[in-house]
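[step 3/7] inverse_fold.run input=structure_tokens len=328
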């Protein structure tokens, strides 16, 4: 039997070769970058409502979305239509997630979570450093003319992306995350109305969601100054930068975990460091596959569980997770 250390070494060597052999790509076209700028701005410029489909790993899920802009900012309601019911209400960055089956409500701030079709930061960073961005062709999507924009990674540290952008409004109609030539995750509108009238009642909770027997849990976050955590990522992969350091309670328990968030301008990766009690069983270390483009890597260091999770290849997630060190 081949030892685990040999397998790890082989993976490391293979990963190194991939990075070295990354293709030399030209600079992105100004036209393609203008399309991405228009796409990033569109959710804050237009009202829209419709149904979109999520597909990954043979799993299909439909959601209904209503999005309105007014003087107070953005108002949004997303309701998952398949499986266990879930409803998210958002006013700007303040979110409430309703779980009707358990009668629970979780409130939190939208820090990095991206909801289709609003998946680019505004303003978006210099994606050209990490992706070759090009215009592909025009294509009709749910009776809207779209411009296809392809983002080809400049190395093996990140996935490729493809966007179908409405030529009139810039709203994203369809998106795909690619592993080489294979689609590993996809969102697409099945029905969409842009700039129609949206009644305020469509953005409010249903009457049964306001009953007193629902339990509310506030997921708190405390942003801290640079270098205030006991941890740092010693070797950031090329193209990734640290966004913020925080302390968060991610469960109903009043226990805060350290959270370091990273991004390459499109993909986001989070590192959670949680102190384990002495009587806590040691968690399993290694890779864990979530659905679609999300990968998870867990390791234990000095009585702390370090979980790295993000929409990046497994090698990138491991590289980040193994770079976490204690500094105090």
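[step 3/7] decode complete -> sequence:
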């Amino acid at each position: 039997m081949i030892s685990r250390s040999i397998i790890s070494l082989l993976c490391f060597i293979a990963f190194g070769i991939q990075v070295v052999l990354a293709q030399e790509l030209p600079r992105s076209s100004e036209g393609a970058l203008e399309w991405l700028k228009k796409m990033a701005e569109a959710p804050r410029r237009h009202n829209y409502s419709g149904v979109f489909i999520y597909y990954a790993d043979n799993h299909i899920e439909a959601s209904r979305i209503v999005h309105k802009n007014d003087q107070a900012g953005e108002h949004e309601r997303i309701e998952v239509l398949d499986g266990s019911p879930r409803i998210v209400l958002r006013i700007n960055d303040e979110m409430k997630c309703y779980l009707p089956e358990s009668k629970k409500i979780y409130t939190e701030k939208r820090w990095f979570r991206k909801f289709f079709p609003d998946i680019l930061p505004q303003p978006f960073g210099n994606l050209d450093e990490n992706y070759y961005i090009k215009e592909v062709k025009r294509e009709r999507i749910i009776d809207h003319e779209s411009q296809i924009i392809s983002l080809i990674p400049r190395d093996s540290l990140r996935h490729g992306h493809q966007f179908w952008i409405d030529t009139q409004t810039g709203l994203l109609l369809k998106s795909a995350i690619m592993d080489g030539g294979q689609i590993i995750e996809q969102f697409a509108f099945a029905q969409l109305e842009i700039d129609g009238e949206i009644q305020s009642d469509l953005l409010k909770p249903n009457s049964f969601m306001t009953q007193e027997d629902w339990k509310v849990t506030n997921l708190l976050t405390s942003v801290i100054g640079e270098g205030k955590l006991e941890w740092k990522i010693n070797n950031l992969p090329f193209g990734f930068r640290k966004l913020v350091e925080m302390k968060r309670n991610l469960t109903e328990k009043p226990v805060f975990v350290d959270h370091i968030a990273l991004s390459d301008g499109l993909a986001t990766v989070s590192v959670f460091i949680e102190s384990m009690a002495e009587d806590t069983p040691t968690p399993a270390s290694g890779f864990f596959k979530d659905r679609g483009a999300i990968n998870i890597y867990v390791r234990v260091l000095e009585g702390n569980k370090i979980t790295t999770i993000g929409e990046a290849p497994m090698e990138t997630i491991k590289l980040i997770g193994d770079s976490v060190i204690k500094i105090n």
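[step 4/7] annotate
The chain has two domains: 30-216, 220-326.
Residues 30-216 form a domain with the outer membrane lipoprotein receptor (LolB), chain A fold (CATH 2.50.20.10).
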